[in-house]
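hi! just following up on the protien thing from before. the input was this:
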Amino acid sequence: MGGAVSCSRPAASPRQSLLKRSSAREFASNRRRSEVHERLSNAAKRYVETAALEEKLRAVNRPGSRHEEDLKASKTLDSALVPVRLIRASWLIKRVYTNRKELPHRKILEQTCPEAFVSDNELEDLLHEVHLAALKGTGVMSYPPIIVLSYPWRSPEHPDPSGSLLAMLAEQLEWYLSERAQLKLEKVVNSHDVGIFIDYWSMYQRSENDWERAVFDMALDSMDAWYGHAGTLTLQLTKLPDDWGEVGEQRQHGGRGWCVFEKHVSSLAKVSTHVLDGGCFDKELLVEQCPAAARIGDGRFAQKSVSELAKQATGEDRGDSPFLSSLINHGGPLHPERFPDVLATKGFTVEADRARVVELYKMVAQGVLSTKSHTSFSHCRWVEEDFANCGYTLKLCEELAGMRLNNVGLNASCMRALLQDLTADDLPALTELHLKDNPLGDDGLHELAAALRRGLLPELRYIVMRKNDETEVGRAELEEACNAREPPISINRAERKNKKEELEHSKVRKSAQRKKLQARRGTVAWTGTHPRLTTAVEKVSMVTGMRVFSSQANFNLTAKGTSASSLTRSGKFSSDRRLSNTSTISMASAPEQAPEQAPEQAPEAARAEDDAFAGLEKSTKRGGERGTVAWYSESEGQ
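and the predicted 3d structure came back as:
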């Protein structure tokens, strides 16, 4: 008999084995990058972009009734229903000031007061502004145009039968619209009004027909998008009206399951200034910052113009501002593993909602935390437990590169709580850490230095510090730990800007936001001041060969286009402010006919004009006297 034939393959060479391992690692790396990209894309679409919100604000066509009797029983039942409607803030304020009676639910309100809701024509501007607010990613307050309300219901039948809860809300909304009125006068926003999401009046409540119940469920499944979106503002009504009397713990804001979900989910993607506590609204503190705010709540809201409302504004846009900081109630992120334990003792009107809430929170936490590249917890009012929860939750932040913890009351014990659950494998992408304005002291720096020596925060490159109550001893210990790392960690000691510089920075920031919004609409406008404006105006006049016309009246002109050359070709330019001193500007009447098309310019001339207009723009960022300047071509003045 012949010998047995071996079917085994020859052993792979070392080079082939190395190539196989390399290919496997590359495949795993590419797969991980693909998964991260997909998670990032999904999270951005839901919590930064506005597609998920817009989907619930548009009508949904009825796919077909499961029970024909539903249609027969209600002749008014529409085949296309909108899952979520936003209440117009200005309408709600006027209504509450004139009528404190019980406000009926959405279905009746749509039939009796259709003007109570934000119209479809306003949604595009509103959603675009929400998207811009979501992209900021810093502690600057942008006063978003959508407010989502978090509040407890007085009873399962009606959340506010006496109207007292809405009466408390009305004063807070008038303050909020006053701040936006100032932004409107500065051309930062197009409208001072906002839309409010209030569940009882924004969604169909549990109905008797299948189609409305289906639309209600669609809206309920989007609660994570409304409260978790980075560009909406969550307003929590933690203080109950006096006429509610004694209320059990599970009927208060902190004892309601949905309210707890809304608070924690709002702390995942939003900056601190976009999570406010209406229960801390202090009218006396507001009047200290702005005496004209004493008129808020006087019942004359319907008679006040935008200019009058703007006089009631504090103008605060920073999380460390006196009044705004008193309202911040950003609880910090909570790991989805710990959320069910927090929710265990909270009450639900419908017990089945408990499991729904847990799943919604898990979806938001994993989607947001695993994809965020930068986050800011600055100006949050945290206690040691919040820092401990934050540290444990940071384990999910695989892509986080920058974190701001400025002015959060971070001391030595809080630093220890923040770092206690982290390992060398956590926060693998974190390169920048901001710790300004915290009472760390030498003990706090010792905790941070010990963590760095243990190998925590392996990719950290920069630590930004200022006013941390440390001595030379603490600084030396931290610097030694930073220098021992490879590469060394740089400690940047930021210097606080003076009040004038901060004001200038705020004006420049608002001007940039205004130009972005106006560029989208195809118009350009500048705000001007005198006397700096005069020099810049004369330079533009010399470079472009255009004559200058000015008047005490407001021409209210805008020029199409977004560049200096397009302004020149169109022959027009205007600002939106009054000019008080016109001594160096030639006076003439505005021409009646439109300018002719200017010939194409050489690149050098176009660049010279761009530089001249840039100088004009720079000079108009400094505030001061208001003015109006209109530009016309040389041929028009002849």
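The first strand starts at residue 60 and ends at 61.
Residues 14-47 form the longest helix (34 residues).
cheers
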